[in-house]
Specification:
Shape: globular
Number of domains: 1
Strand content: 35-45%
Distance between the termini: 58 Å
CATH topology: Jelly Rolls
Number of strands: 10
Order of helices and strands: EHEEEEEEEEE
Number of helices: 1
CATH architecture: Sandwich
Radius of gyration: 16 Å
């Protein structure tokens, strides 16, 4: 017998939602995939892509979230996770454990990733710097 569920069926096509500004970072564009609505706020899934060249990056922060993964679809991004520099390239999947202090400081012009986070209304909290940040790669 099938179990009752508290989520809804969702099917979002590329033409259903557009990339928009106004998300967590102004130098990225975000495309909602309808998961927050379908899960009644339990999970958010969105596509994120570069909109402007990196200047200062995200700054040191952590998320108040139970679960977060980033799957790089195109291009690359360089993060600091605590004091470890990490290059995330197309095809890579990163699980960001709850509370990990991190800083996205560099990315390619074609960078695009899928981010899945629970809960949908997760918070981003600024934290004290962990270490120095390398310079971003200039866009030409």
């Amino acid at each position: 017998m099938l179990q009752a569920t508290t989520t809804e069926f969702s099917h979002v096509k590329p033409e259903d939602t557009q990339y928009v500004s106004g998300g967590l970072r102004d130098f990225f564009l975000y495309r909602d995939l309808g998961i927050a609505e379908a899960t009644h706020g339990k999970v958010i899934a969105h596509l994120v892509k570069a909109n402007m060249a990196p200047e200062k990056g995200t700054g040191w922060h952590r998320h108040e979230a139970e679960f977060q993964i980033v799957i790089m679809l195109k291009g690359w991004a360089r993060f600091m996770y605590e004091d470890k520099e990490t290059l995330v390239q197309a095809g890579d999947c990163v699980h960001q454990r709850p509370g990990i202090r991190h800083y996205l400081f560099d990315y390619s012009p074609d960078m695009e990733y899928l981010e899945i986070v629970s809960p949908a209304d997760f918070k981003s909290i600024d934290v004290e710097p962990v270490c120095d940040i390398p310079e971003p790669t200039p866009w030409n």
